Amino acid sequence: MAKGLDKYLERANIVSGFGKNLARRSKSKCELCEATGVKLSVFEVLPSKEEPDYDRCIFLCDNCINLLKNIKKSKENDFRFLSGSMWSETPIVKATAIHILNEIKGKYSWAEELLENAYIEEHEKEILNTISFEVK
Ligand SMILES: [Zn+2]
Q: What spacing in Å lies between the alpha carbon of 79 and ligand 1's midpoint?
């Protein structure tokens, strides 16, 4: 029991340690919606790996974190900001944006139109294939 807790705390420590670098990478803007002046938290893109991985972490505002909890329940305009983040130079941010668009394109034609214009490189496709927010 104590061991499990230790592990959990250690992991939480490592992940929050990414915060400083993420603040620099994101220029203190939410990496999905670009909100500024709001609280930003380290978010591990799912499924999380056994060892926390900086390259799978994004810096997000509370609003985006809430939206990611239930992507399929989003309203039509909730994710409009992805038209910006789908061009992010940070692979995991871009892949997450494209992943979300893929999830909602059946519901909202604007998402499908954005995807038609998206340019996804091979290595970004590989990252994209590893993302899943579905709780199994
Ligand atoms: Zn945001």
A: 10
Evaluate whether 57 touches 26 at the Cβ level (below 8 Å).
no
Q: 96 alpha carbon to ligand 1 midpoint, in Å?
A: 13
Cα-to-centroid distance, 47 and ligand 1 (Å): 20
| Tens-digit pLDDT profile for residues 44-87 | 998 888 889 999 999 999 999 999 999 989 999 999 999 999 99
The 10s digit of each residue's pLDDT in 98-108 is 999 999 999 99
Return the beta strands (E) in 5-125 as ranges: 40-44, 57-61
Q: Is the pTM of this model over 0.90?
A: yes
Positive/negative CA dihedral, 119, 134, 61, 110: positive
Give distance in angstroms: CA of 74 to centre of ligand 1: 14
* CA–CA distance, 51 with 56 (Å, rounded to integer): 11
Burial of 59 (0-12, 13-18, 19+ CB in 10 A): buried
How much distance in Å is there from the Cα of 2 to the middle of ligand 1? 35
Q: Where are the domains of the chain?
A: 2-130
